[in-house]
Amino acid sequence: MWFFARDPVRDFPFELSPELPKGGPPGPWVLHRGRKKATGSPVSIFVYDVKPGVEEQTQVAKAAFKRLKTLRHPNILAYIDGLETDKCLHIVTEAVTPLGAYLKARAEAGDLKELELSWGLHQIVKALSFLVNDCSLIHNNVCMAAVFVDRAGEWKLGGLDYMYSAQGNGGGPPRKGIPELEQYDPPELADASGRAVREKWSADMWRLGCLIWEVFNGPLPRAAALRNPGKIPKSLVPHYCELVGANPKVRPNPARFLQNCRAPDGFMNNRFVEINLFLEEIQIKEPAEKQKFFQELSKSLDSFPEDFCRHKVLPQLLTAFEFGNAGAVVLTPLFKVGKFLGAEEYQQKIIPVVVKMFSSTDRAMRIRLLQQMEQFIQYLDEPTVNTQIFPHVVHGFLDTNPAIREQTVKSMLLLAPKLNETNLNVELMKHFARLQAKDEQGPIRCNTTVCLGKIGSYLSASTRHRVLASAFSRATKDPFAPSRVAGVLGFAATHNLYSMNDCAHKILPVLCSLTVDPERSVRDQAFKAIRSFLSKLESVSEDPTQLAEAEKDVHAASSPGMGGAAASWAGWAVTGVSSLTSKLIRAHPTAAPAETNVPQRPVSEGLPAPAPTPVAATPTTSGHWETQEESKDAEEDSTAADRWDDEDWGSLEQEAESVLAQQDNWSTGGQASWAGQTSNPGHKSQESDWSSWEAEDAWEQGWQEPSPPEPPPEGTRLASEYNWGGPEPSDKGDPFAALSVHREAGAQPRRDSWGDDNWEGLEAESRQAKAELARKKREERRREMEAKRAEKKTAKGPMKLGTRKLD
């Protein structure tokens, strides 16, 4: 029976790369790039081939194998695996690059910074301090060839071939026999008498001085060159001179050298070193210290090396979020570091964290995510947006904090291109209708209109037909002047999405009513928009063949190219009104909405418009507000029974109530703000106005076209049937009947319900009209009773008992 020996090198779980890295270390070892066969992760493999006749060198290599395997320190080359056979030695470590090759590449790219060098030298000195002070070991080979750099830019001390014990247990230092390494030996080693008094660290500190000289000046040609510091920074020169002094007794201990360099104005006393030291001890820091650290971290990241941010800062940020409850403070540095990542790496590391953050109930985290969405939206795919992001984002529409509602609206500009049919045309439009009709903050209603104008091109053709004209018409009747301007700009931004018939019958009548608006800015924009639509209608009138070209986008599918046009028309509102919203929220977090001075609509028949009346806000308890809400809802339901129910708005209100019930102490402040805002008389009048618009608006049934008004019930008396202060008419007929019949016979009824609205009849005027009508009825009744009494007095026959009492 034959037994076959297996090749251990072939079964080794790591494989070598055929090409050798440039600038390999001098000595018995050859550095190879490699990878792990199972995962493909990169590693570095040091290979030593055993040859006959070099037993001394083989023993040195085996000693280095043993030392590296047993020594564990963050600043010493990390051992992963190894292989020892009769023919070769393999040492697998983390993926590293020789320091000489690393510095050369960084210098050629122009990215080498003094901050990076200060931290690298700090790490090497710290490793020497560990060996000398904690392990009583002399490295005996500190030089450029013994230092390696990992992918994060961390310097690692290697080259443990000639290490020996400082206590003399293993004999004297081994002989190197390599001239490139012996030139770093201190001058006292050449003294055969051994009379020089030195410390155990003296030789390694001399070699550290040689390393510092090479880092700043390049390869050391000879020992005499150490007398000239060259390009060594001035803050480091005094400490460098201590290292290369002729007297070995005065060379400092590595720990004291670090202390000297970390003194005020020292070479290693900088922000980069401080951040690295904090990251090394972050697991034992207090939560308050971590919060402060992450808040200040983003300010310094721009000046740090890219590799350091990607491979050292980023893992710490991810760990702090996953296990440290760092919260929203990690978002700003996380997204700043994310700019250094490729698309695939961003998907693997950042996106899972972002998706998890959106499900958080922390308001600070939610608003920061919304504010910085443009930094990561390009890496989100559509399924992720629709199933994991959008369902959490829409809760912001129902939040009691105005800042979150505003940021949620603005975030739709980025999310809309990635939303599916249902989320975009149904869910989002439902929330937009609610915000534009019922939100107490004027700037938020304005931004809702702006956002709708910008995403209008992404809507389906049927949704555009139902929504856009009605929504912008509603905005032109908003008491908040910038909202009316946004409505006009919305019409202009989406001009190519309307048919010529809609332009003539729906849009122009609405715009013409704004030409007498109290605000100059509204009138100016209205005139511009009117001229634009009239020019479009005139061109089609002169050349009817242009009709198809002018209406090509009306029934077309969603066209993302429209986004630029919308931005040019209405881009001002998101920034300008956003700042206004922020000021309102900061200055008056519980004050009345911005539209405290509600501009009155111009009075018809040429009468001058009344001056706007300032409305004072009166605080109201939440209980009183609930009573007002119930009474108002009952009144609205009695006048418009099918107004919002057709679109199942009740489920949305239940959702809002459930969200409000789950809020923390923010909710208390938010509801107090709500109560204070809606309790003022001006706002109540505004709500009544919106209620009347809701009853007649095309948004009332999912933005569908309203049906023609039903005729009044039989027996209803028209306003013209009453005597309005003149002499008693003999005929009780309607004097406007002929005009009404003529209008119905000669003109086609308007399809847009907005055209039939009497915008002079606000709720206050409506109450006055009712009071006046009641007074007229009483006067008429009194005159009728007087006439009857006069007839009875002149009647013949005996007077009936009790007649005098009636007088």
Automatic annotation (TrEMBL):
Residues 667-691 have a biased composition (Polar residues). InterPro entries: ARM-like, ARM-type_fold, CIK-Related_Protein, HEAT_type_2, Kinase-like_dom_sf, Prot_kinase_dom. It comes from the Eukaryota. GO terms for molecular function: ATP binding; protein kinase activity. The keyword Cytoplasm applies. HEAT repeats lie at residues 507-545. Belongs to the protein kinase superfamily. This is N-terminal kinase-like protein. The gene is SCYL1.
